[in-house]
Amino acid sequence: MVTNINLSFEEMWEKIIACDRKYDGLFFTAVKTTKIYCRPSCRSRKPKKTNVEFYHDINEVEKAGFRACKRCQPEVEHSPHVGLVRNVITFLVNHYKQKLILTDIANQVGLSPFYLERLFKQETSETPRSYLEKIRIDKATHLLKCSTLTNLEICYEVGFQSPSNFYKVFRNLKNCSPSEYRKEFQNGLD
């Protein structure tokens, strides 16, 4: 399916200079001198304006003899960072009980903490910390339903370092305290 957008050469040029992600997939930037094509949001060095051609369809650009950029991977339907984010989430799920700081997570995937947080937030709209807190609260709700552990035991079992933080995060995500949650669940079974 070819979806031509109604943008002039100048407008498309402005989009690639701004690295605008909203236009990814709507058109592709092909560089005549390198024979490489990119997404509008590609962060690679910008070519000379005279060396650029725009294509609206990925098949057109490949038929014209251009190859995909290795940095922005325009031939991949999803964001090029999905695999990295998936690795971070897997790490968080597998290590939620441990005391984790952003540096630990960043070291695991080989990025700087700042870049990891920016990328993760870009892809998931959350920080790694808030994502980890959600994982921990999911585990806590499961334990509240399925075990006889006290709230304090559950707090430490799911990786929180302090009860006050556990209660605060639990209330923010579930709109009730752990005790209220357990009580509501038990009342639902009766």
Automatic annotation (TrEMBL):
Any single Pfam family the record assigns to this protein: HTH_18
InterPro entries, per the entry: Ada-like_dom_sf, Ada_DNA_repair_Zn-bd, Homeodomain-like_sf, HTH_AraC, Me-P-triester_DNA_alkyl-Trfase
Membrane-spanning residues: none
UniProt keyword annotations, A-Z: Activator, DNA-binding, Methyltransferase, Transcription, Transcription regulation, Transferase
GO molecular function: DNA-binding transcription factor activity; methyltransferase activity; sequence-specific DNA binding; zinc ion binding
SUPFAM superfamilies the UniProt entry points to: Ada DNA repair protein, N-terminal domain (N-Ada 10), Homeodomain-like
Domain HTH araC/xylS-type: 86-184
Cofactor needs: Zn(2+)
GO aspect biological process, one term: DNA repair
Transferase found in the keyword field: yes
Record protein name field: Methylphosphotriester-DNA--protein-cysteine methyltransferase family protein
Organism: Lederbergia citrisecunda
